[in-house]
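Notes to self after the Tuesday call (sharing in case useful).
The group wants a holo model before anyone commits to mutagenesis around the pocket. I volunteered. Ligand is NAP. Logging inputs and output together so the record is complete.
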Amino acid sequence: MSKKVAVVTGSNKGLGFAIVKALCSNWNGTVYLTSRDQRRGQSACEELKNLGLSPVFHQLDVTDESSIKKFRDYIEENHQQIDILVNNAGILFLKDAKEPKEFQAEQTVSVNFFALANFTEAMLPLIKNGGTVLNISSSSGHLSRIPSEALRQKFISEELSLQQLKELMNSYVESVKEGREIEDGWGDSPYVISKVGVNAYTFMLSRKLAEKGITVNCMHPGYVISDMTRGVGSVTPEQGAQLALKLVLDPPGTGLYVWHDGTVVPWDGPDPRGFIDKKM
Ligand SMILES: NC(=O)c1ccc[n+]([C@@H]2O[C@H](COP(=O)([O-])OP(=O)(O)OC[C@H]3O[C@@H](n4cnc5c(N)ncnc54)[C@H](OP(=O)(O)O)[C@@H]3O)[C@@H](O)[C@H]2O)c1
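Result:
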């Protein structure tokens, strides 16, 4: 029987790196540590090899179509199928970011939502029946973070297609370009919209892949100490990675939004931050 295969995006540092480390330590299979930057990825891989672990490096920029294609073709040629896909790569502009808000909106939605969906769609034919996809979301992806009830209804519709979801996300970016995002009911955070998109995509995909026994879940890892937060937070990447490990090796179901303490949070329920996580 060929060896099992796991792929983690954006895993040269932070939570992704810790997920690769946890998989290499607790799972019998080939684990791909991927990074958009060859040098950063190889050096992260070396760090784990020095600990006696055996990740395999491959370049992967999830915003770059040709990089996705090369990676997909490489996996198909060398393994044919994959068992585990963890979509972890992500960006966040902190509140003091100087970049124009249109740029922040475009970039955040492009990396966190479009790239995740495009990469996953490219890999779908290679995901083994009974395999698992885990999308690293955030508490920011809770539907209650979008002020407009009309917009929330669009996101939760089970009739929503991927094409329509993409159009919805593009309409957010257009709204920001026109300076209308608040009056249009989107709120003021590109990160929130990008992660709401990730969650909507997760539930859509979980319904589509259920008959193949492929589980598709999303998780909030907690307030993780990483470069994204400039080293501030309440959990280490290793602690955040424990939930990811559990969700890929022993998923409690499919179409779930699981928070760092293991709570399955109803996506369209009341904002749970008050009692679960006051930080992010
Ligand atoms: N930190 C938190 O408190 C927190 C809370 C909730 C959710 N999350 C989510 O957890 C995930 C990991 O975050 P983190 O805290 O570990 O952040 P991080 O340390 O900044 O790591 C982000 C990773 O994503 C990679 N990345 C960015 N753009 C990419 C692209 N186009 N292609 C491939 N990789 C790309 C980065 O690569 P480079 O090194 O090349 O930039 C890096 O490896 C993100 O999805 C984030 O939204 C984090």
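Two things stood out.
The mean pLDDT is 96.
Residues 4-94+110-141+193-267 form a domain with the Rossmann fold fold (CATH 3.40.50.720).
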